[in-house]
């Protein structure tokens, strides 16, 4: 008797592969004056701390805790965040169908840095079970803020809004590789967050809210594998940003499948497959093949990626029809990432990401 096929598992980030939103960016733009630039400054600071400094108590995605004192000072509440989030969800075309299709194949989970309020609203829209979601828990209403601290945070917010967005030159390894102007920006932001705000009463929010990014995403994926009693080698992970790097590395190391869906340079650098697509149906195709024949089967399909290859590799006939209707002439771009094409894919995927999600969101880490 032949052994039973491995039980495979699908795990995806949310913002990027499933939705076009950057909910934290959008909330900041909604509540905070000049919020778009303010968020961009802090987001790039997040990239520096996570990828350059590698601060021990910091992880990619902790932008979501750094903005909280300012959101609170500008009147954000649990109800306000929930109402705004539910009214501004923008799905990747085909995402609802993809999640339904994938859930019919294998256990499926979402691991997202996004706040719980946003993820609950999204799950309602796409009919995805919230119990299969890992995300950032947030209770803004339990934190008090005095008028004195509101005034101080307003001053700090105005100062941050005047700062340049930090530039991280290619090949940056340490802070010394940054231009002096941007080293000065990092130094000042260090003082603002880890001395001034941390010393306030509202600074408690920085210590208590724990965004599910970086190594916390990796821990979530490990928990999923433990819950299902499966190996990470039988797991497919789809992500798009710096918050997914830890998971990509962990899953690739043991032979699982890692997919960058419209990813930025951080995602392409660490994933095995790069997808550039306006529609999530590509995720459906890759997942269906992964469920049947595993990672090697997906890689073989991708290396032969073409309309005829879908039939050759026995992709679900109904799925083939849907792909053909959406793309009668040319399929979305899907490539295996190699040392030879990585730099090109980092550029092209980053540019495509901006065209799909908009310049402001697309350029974020």
Can you characterise this structure?
46% of the residues are buried. The chain has a 7-stranded mixed beta sheet with strand order 3-2-1-4-5-6-7, with helices on both faces. It is globular and about 65 Å long. The longest helix has 23 residues, at 281-303. It has helices at residues 23-31, 35-53, 63-66, 68-73, 78-87, 95-105, 116-126, 147-161, 180-197, 204-208, 215-228, 245-253, 265-270, 281-303, 307-312, 317-326, 342-357, 359-362; strands at 9-12, 108-115, 133-136, 235-239, 257-261, 273-276, 333-336. It has 365 residues and is of the alpha/beta class. Helices cover 54% and strands 9% of the residues. It folds into 2 domains: 9-20 and 92-137 and 213-362, Rossmann fold, CATH 3.40.50; 23-85 and 139-208, Orthogonal Bundle (AF1437-like domain fold), CATH 1.10.3870. Strand 4, helix 12 and strand 5 (257-261) form a beta-alpha-beta unit.
Reconstruct the topology from this structure.
Layout: E1 9-12, H1 23-31, H2 35-53, H3 63-66, H4 68-73, H5 78-87, H6 95-105, E2 108-115, H7 116-126, E3 133-136, H8 147-161, H9 180-197, H10 204-208, H11 215-228, E4 235-239, H12 245-253, E5 257-261, H13 265-270, E6 273-276, H14 281-303, H15 307-312, H16 317-326, E7 333-336, H17 342-357, H18 359-362
Helix pairs in contact: 1-2, 5-7, 6-14, 14-16
Helix-strand category? alpha/beta
Q: Kindly report the average pLDDT value.
A: 94
- Do you know the CATH topology of the largest domain? Rossmann fold
Order of helical and strand elements: EHHHHHHEHEHHHHEHEHEHHHEHH
Shape: globular
The tally of strands reads 7
Give the strand order of the largest sheet, numbering strands 1, 2, ... along the chain.
Answer: 3-2-1-4-5-6-7
Largest sheet, in brief, is: 7 strands, mixed
Named at the architecture level, the CATH assignment of the largest domain is 3-Layer(aba) Sandwich
- Detail the poorly predicted runs: 1-5
Gyration radius (Cα, Å) is 21 Å
Helix content: 40-55%
> What do we call the CATH homologous superfamily of the largest domain?
HAD superfamily/HAD-like
Tally of individual helices: 18
- The CATH class designation of the largest domain is Alpha Beta
Work out the count of structural domains. 2
Q: End-to-end distance, in Å?
A: 49 Å
**Fraction in beta strands:** 5-15%
């Amino acid at each position: 008797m032949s052994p039973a096929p491995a039980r495979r598992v699908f795990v995806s980030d949310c913002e990027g592969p499933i939705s076009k939103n950057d909910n934290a960016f959008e909330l900041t733009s909604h509540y905070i004056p000049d919020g778009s630039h303010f968020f961009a400054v802090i987001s790039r600071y997040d990239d520096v701390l996570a990828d350059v400094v590698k601060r021990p108590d910091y992880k990619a995605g902790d932008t979501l805790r750094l903005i909280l004192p300012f959101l609170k000072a500008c009147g954000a509440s649990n109800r306000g965040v929930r109402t705004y989030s539910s009214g501004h969800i923008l799905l990747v075309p085909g995402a609802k169908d993809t999640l339904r299709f994938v859930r019919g194949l294998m256990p499926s989970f979402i691991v997202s840095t996004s706040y719980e309020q946003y993820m609950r609203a999204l799950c309602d829209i796409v009919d995805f079970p919230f119990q299969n979601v890992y995300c950032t828990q947030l209770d803004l209403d339990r934190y008090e803020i005095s008028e004195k601290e509101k005034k101080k945070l307003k001053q700090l917010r105005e100062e941050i809004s005047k700062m340049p967005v930090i530039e991280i030159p290619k090949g940056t390894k340490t802070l010394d590789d940054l231009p002096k102007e941007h080293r000065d920006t990092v130094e000042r932001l260090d003082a603002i967050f880890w001395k001034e705000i941390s010393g306030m009463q509202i600074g408690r929010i920085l210590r208590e809210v724990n965004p599910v990014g970086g190594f916390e995403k990796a821990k979530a994926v490990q928990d999923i594998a433990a819950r299902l009693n499966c190996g990470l080698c039988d797991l497919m992970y789809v992500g798009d940003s710096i918050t997914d790097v830890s998971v990509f590395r962990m899953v690739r190391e043991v032979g699982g499948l890692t997919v960058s869906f419209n990813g930025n340079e951080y995602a392409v650098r660490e994933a095995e497959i790069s997808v550039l697509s306006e529609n999530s149906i590509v995720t459906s195709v890759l997942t269906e093949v992964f469920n049947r024949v595993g990672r090697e089967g997906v890689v073989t399909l991708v290396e032969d990626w073409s309309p005829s290859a879908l039939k050759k590799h026995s992709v679900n006939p109904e799925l083939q029809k849907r792909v053909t209707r959406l793309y009668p002439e040319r399929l979305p771009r899907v490539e295996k990432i190699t040392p030879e094409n990585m730099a090109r894919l980092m550029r092209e995927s980053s540019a495509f990401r901006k065209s799909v999600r908009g310049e402001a969101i697309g350029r974020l880490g």
